[in-house]
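Q: Okay, next protein. This is Ribose 5-phosphate isomerase B from Segetibacter aerophilus. I've checked the sequence twice, so it should be correct. Can you predict the 3D structure?
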Amino acid sequence: MSFQFDRSKPIAIGADHAGFEYKTAVVAHLNKSGFQVSDFGTYSADSVDYPDFAHPTATSVENDEAACGILICGSANGVAITANKHKGVRAGLCWQKDVAELTRKHNNANVLCLPARFISLQTAIDIVDTFLNTPFDGGRHQERINKILR
């Protein structure tokens, strides 16, 4: 498999306090794998509000400054809801590799949302790799995405 996004652009990432530890590990994994990363915080485990980090991450994807985005919070619901407010962002909540694969194949998601309180760190990293390396199937799925965009 190969990276399915524009490699010349960074991967945007953001997390709240519940996702801070996972974000730190995912950033290290991405850097080790040769990716550029735009880290929109948070930068500690101190309690914060997830929209403060989801909005800048999603804006980076919306403005085509980032190849794609990764958001991490406790359940991933809050960051997914926030990111999906942005034009052109298709954020998908993924808790296993199969879901990440279908989110890319069928929905052409460009922001991955991870629930840190419900998956292991290794599972999170495996999901990231699956998300980044799975191509969009197009075809009938593109027709469905067009209906979302109207």
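A: Here is a summary of the prediction. The chain has a mean pLDDT of 95. The longest helix spans residues 20-32.
Q: Noted. On to the next one.
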